[in-house]
Write a structure and sequence with these properties.
alpha+beta; 2 helices; 30% strand; 4-stranded antiparallel beta sheet; 10 strands
């Protein structure tokens, strides 16, 4: 586990898909990135999480003041996040961003999945098509279309 960035204030690591960010409920869900950091002698504080199935960069604070500052930056939406997703179907590339604005709630029978539902939490995401998988170079296999996504609400 080699940090992408490391100093006395923070760590940046690339979380692989399939690994939890923080421990879950039950003994079978204790293996996670934060626990691996502690085991490697790199004690740190969680600032944000990524879903288990999501890979990507995660920030960890090395002290309480940095955790407060980074958490505040996330809460104030001062951190820009972008995801790459493969979706079914074929869309041509788009130059501009479009907005998804729909409330999201827990899908209780199928937790941790989420659904669009009235009364759910506000959720806004910008998206644009990068085109069919053959138009976009990537090491990951995609039989559909690659989308660039920018969550604005954190959900």
């Amino acid at each position: 586990m080699t940090p992408v960035y490391f100093d006395e204030h923070m760590l940046v690591l690339n979380k692989p898909s399939g690994l939890l960010s923080v421990p879950g409920r039950g003994p079978d869900k204790q293996d996670c990135l934060s626990a691996r950091l502690a085991q490697a002698g790199l004690p740190s504080m969680v600032v944000h999480r990524l879903d288990q199935a999501t890979s990507g960069l995660m920030l960890f604070a090395r002290n309480a003041e940095m955790q407060r500052q980074l958490s505040h930056a996330f809460a104030q939406r001062q951190v820009n996040k972008q995801y790459l997703a493969c979706v079914a179907g074929h869309l041509p590339p788009s130059a501009g961003w479009q907005l998804i604005d729909a409330p999201i709630a827990a899908d209780w029978p199928r937790r941790p999945l989420r659904i669009v539902a009235e009364g759910g939490q506000n959720s806004q995401t910008l998206w644009r098509s990068l085109g069919p998988s053959t138009d976009h170079a990537s090491d990951d296999a995609c039989a559909g279309t690659w989308l660039a996504l920018r969550p604005m609400s954190g959900r």
